[in-house]
Amino acid sequence: MRLAGFGMRVVAASVTVGLLAPLARAFYLPGIAPHDYKIGEAVELQVNSLTPSLNAENKLESVLSFGYYDERFHFCQPEGGPKAVHESLGSILFGDRIYGSAFDLHMLKDTSCQVLCQQNIPGADAAFINDKIMKGYNYNWLIDGLPAATVKVDDRTEQQFYSVGFELGSSQAGQLVPHFHNHYEITVQYHTLDAVHHRVVGVVVTPASKNTVLPKDGTASCDAAEPMNLHEDRDNSVVFTYSVKWEASEKSWATRWDDYLHAVDPRIHWFSLINSMVIVVFLSAMLGLILMRTLHKDIARYNSDDAEDLQEDFGWKLVHGDVFRPPQRFELLAVILGSGYQLFWMVVTTLVIALLGFLSPSSRGSLTTAMLLLFIVYGFSAGYNSAHLCHSFGGLSLKRIIITTVLFVPGICWVVLMIINLCLVVAHSSAAAPIGTLLGVMALWFVVSIPLTVCGAYFGFRRKTIDPPVRVNQIPRQIPDQPWYLKPIPSALMGGILTFGAIFIELYFIMNSIWFHKVYYVFGFLFLVFCILVITTAEVTVLLTYFHLCAEDYRWHWRSVYTAGASALYVFLYGILFYFSRLRLASYASLITYFGWMAIACLLFFILTGTIGFVASHLFVRRIYSAIKID
Q1: How far apart are CA 124 and CA 121, in angstroms?
Q2: Distances (CA, A) of 123 to 37, 229, 533
Q3: Which of 335, 334, 336, 337 is nearest to 392 (CA)?
Q4: Band (285; pLDDT cuts 50, 70, 90)
Q5: Which pLDDT tens digit goes with each residue over 201-219?
Q6: For residue 68, which of 55, 54, 81, 57 has the smallest C-alpha distance?
Q7: Phi/psi at 345 (5° precision)
Q8: Residue 28 pLDDT exceeds 50
Q9: Could you tell me which residues come within 8 angstroms of residue 403 by beta carbon, excluding any fewer than 6 positions away?
Q10: What is the pTM of this model?
């Protein structure tokens, strides 16, 4: 079964040209080119939403982020009010809310104990802040695109690395009221190009809690030994201060992210890869044994002119007249497979772009933006393959297949996302997508995705149908009783566990990156794991399809989909295990957000792996039945 043909190649070429066009104008991609500062030039410090991290018990208690200028925090605002920074679509959808700040930084100009402002925090808001401190919330600042970090030491290697963000406050065991961090020691590392130009290559913030008293002249001393505790039964006067230190560094601008991209233990990734390879080798050996020995013997015997051999025919040849019979609910099957093609090409293209280095961590949200835009563009593939498969199965309604393809996967995802977004709005979380962003996504869907889907469906429906290599009987053959291990649920569970075994270690790193706000960057490993996933899924499905055909069960179409897609069930179960082992979510909004996103991810994973399994089984079935002589 071929994919998208000439139209698909045109769309792919258009996306490639669009992505590579900026390279024709400059060496650096837009948004990640270095900024050369002169001595005394203003360096902007931007603030982002506060995000949760692990608490004192090494658990994550929330997945909700809150805006830096949420009125309950009472942080100092710049004159004229905070101004929003332009962000990408993916950055907004994943909760980034970046604004300018009141901090005043100038290249190579050290400052000591500068006063930002003095704020009065009521008891109710103090309770809100203390709750967020106990849940391990972090500040998230940016200077020249680099996140402010905390220096930590790897327990295994004793190597220092930068952990993105720094604590809102601190709390010791048995401490009733946590300390609120209101003083910030900002260390900015710079690399000197020449006597005039300098570049920012690192940002480290060491927060402190100081009960500073501001005299009438407005000059404060940051030597206070008493920590700043926010009392929940009365108003609290808080003075926010900061110091800035500029530190020369030998790091170049090109390697400034190296300290942030710290691998906890690279050997784990290699173990994941080796584990996956062992599964692939095992399955390949089994598949090779079947193809090289059993199938070869079967085909030779079936094509033999010996009457005695013909009388002994059994197994998969007996169902040749039914194996290409259109499945039940073939329109829904065609829509799922069309969406699977769409997801497959989106994932492949995204990984290739990431491997080429276009998705820099400096460009926040670029990965999400690329995936969303590619999913929309590859709506052509969804329409093309859905219509072509439906027509090949005997479907005659082009209009119905277009409507179903347009609404099925995007509609389900949109409904779940709206439920999640509503919960975030009720919880006053900054992660709730603004109305303008939601309308923009809908506009992309209506203006770009739907027309491309309709266009693809038109060409797919007009393409020559996939004719079976053997004649289909008019009367369906009776299917004998199947052994328990070949029944739908046991066989799907067996197939799914093998596929899941090839990816579960890398899945941990992906989920850890998403929910703990870590930078995921090992796209080379991810690409190899994805290739292994495709091979494993195809081999498992072909093996089980062969076993079903040998048991005279010709209903392979749907079974190939849910046998391959059953690994999504294990992914969801792993998400539940991850929840109980690493999370302790206290609010309904956090629970709905976590399990809502897990449900969307598992649905898309089911469609993707199900499509891979179907395509592999389809090629296998056509190949073996076209190799035998049918009377």
Answers
A1: 8
A2: 43, 11, 53
A3: 334
A4: confident
A5: 999 999 999 988 888 776 7
A6: 81
A7: -70, -30
A8: no
A9: none
A10: 0.87
